[in-house]
């Protein structure tokens, strides 16, 4: 997955810098950001030290800002934080939700096993008293209010300040964190529809291919990781390094 994420990102950025009239490079590049979002979710779940993970992201984001501006932005464009800053905010939202609401609280609304649903709808199931059911709904609402408020605050921050991809990326991270399978793909589809209506290019829909890989053929991504092992130093340095090279190519073509 790491190799595929890096490759598709490189293709996307080559399309911006060297072949802006070739839309196919941008189509392929739509897979990169969802793969990085999914990698963030996996990294957050697996890291032994959240602090070191967050510091690494912050360092990468800071080192990438100037190369990002010179490689991908026009001189007259307003300032914008690069996508690693957006990932860093998304990581902070995941952490705040888990700390304030507990890891299970935020996912309780999106995860319900078929067995639990069958038991709940069984004629043999004893119905809860009305007062108890009302209290249960209140508890669920309160439990969801905290992660919902944190997520909404993160979205607001990403939209009020100029972050690359804005709230779209945070919402996709939350989808990968709390959904799976067909639900995950459906949520990503509707997210794309919403943001295309808000002004994203229509080819953003190609990003759905990444969720199809994640949801339906995760073993294919695992196979790629086993065959093409990406060194940690390359994975962590790739974003600022390739942007620096593209910035040099763009501004010093004679080199």
Keywords for this entry:
about 260 residues, mainly alpha
Structure report:
The protein is mainly alpha-helical and 255 residues long. It has one domain. Helices cover 75% and strands 0% of the residues. Helix 3 packs across helix 9 (167-178) and helix 5 (83-101) runs antiparallel to helix 8 (130-160). The longest helix is centred in the middle third of the chain and has 31 residues, at 130-160. The chain is globular. It starts with a helix and ends with a helix. Residues 104-128 have low confidence and may be disordered.
Overview in brief:
The chain has 255 residues and is an all-alpha fold.
Largest sheet report: none
Tell me the series of helices and strands, N- to C-terminal. Answer: HHHHHHHHHHHHH
Coarse structural class: mainly alpha
**What gyration radius follows from the Cα positions, in whole Å?**
21 Å
Helix tally equals 13
Basic shape: globular
Give the tally of β-strands: 0
Given as residue ranges, the uncertain stretches (5+ residues, pLDDT < 50) are: 104-128
| Strand fraction | under 5%
The helical percent reads: over 70%
Distance between the termini: 33 Å
Total domain units: 1
- Mean pLDDT across the residues is 86
Helix and strand arrangement:
Layout (H helix, E strand, L loop, with lengths): L1 H16 L5 H7 L2 H15 L3 H23 L10 H19 L1 H5 L6 H8 L8 H31 L6 H12 L2 H17 L10 H9 L1 H10 L4 H20 L4
Helix pairs in contact: 1-2, 1-3, 1-13, 3-9, 3-11, 4-5, 4-13, 5-8, 5-9, 8-9, 9-10, 10-11
């Amino acid at each position: 997955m790491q190799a595929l994420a890096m490759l598709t990102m490189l293709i996307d950025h080559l399309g911006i810098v060297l072949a802006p009239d070739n839309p196919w490079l941008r189509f392929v590049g739509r897979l990169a950001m969802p793969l990085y979002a999914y990698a963030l979710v996996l990294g957050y779940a697996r890291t032994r030290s959240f602090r070191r993970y967050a510091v690494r992201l912050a360092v990468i984001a800071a080192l990438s800002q100037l190369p990002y501006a010179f490689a991908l932005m026009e001189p007259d464009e307003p300032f914008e934080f690069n996508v690693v800053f957006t990932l860093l905010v998304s990581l902070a939202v995941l952490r705040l939700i888990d700390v304030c609401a507990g890891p299970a609280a935020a996912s309780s609304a999106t995860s319900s096993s078929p067995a639990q649903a069958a038991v709940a709808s069984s004629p043999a199931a004893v119905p809860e008293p009305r007062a108890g059911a009302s209290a249960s709904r209140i508890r669920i609402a309160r439990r969801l209010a905290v992660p919902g408020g944190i997520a909404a605050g993160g979205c607001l921050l990403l939209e009020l300040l100029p972050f690359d991809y804005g709230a779209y990326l945070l919402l996709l991270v939350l989808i990968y964190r709390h959904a799976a399978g067909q639900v995950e793909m459906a949520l990503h589809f509707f997210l794309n529809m919403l943001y295309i209506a808000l002004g994203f290019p229509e080819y953003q829909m190609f990003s759905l291919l990444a969720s199809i890989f994640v949801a339906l053929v995760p073993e294919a991504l695992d196979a790629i990781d086993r065959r093409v092992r990406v060194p940690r130093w390359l994975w962590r340095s790739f974003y600022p390094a390739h942007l620096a090279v593209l910035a040099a190519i763009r501004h010093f073509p004679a080199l």
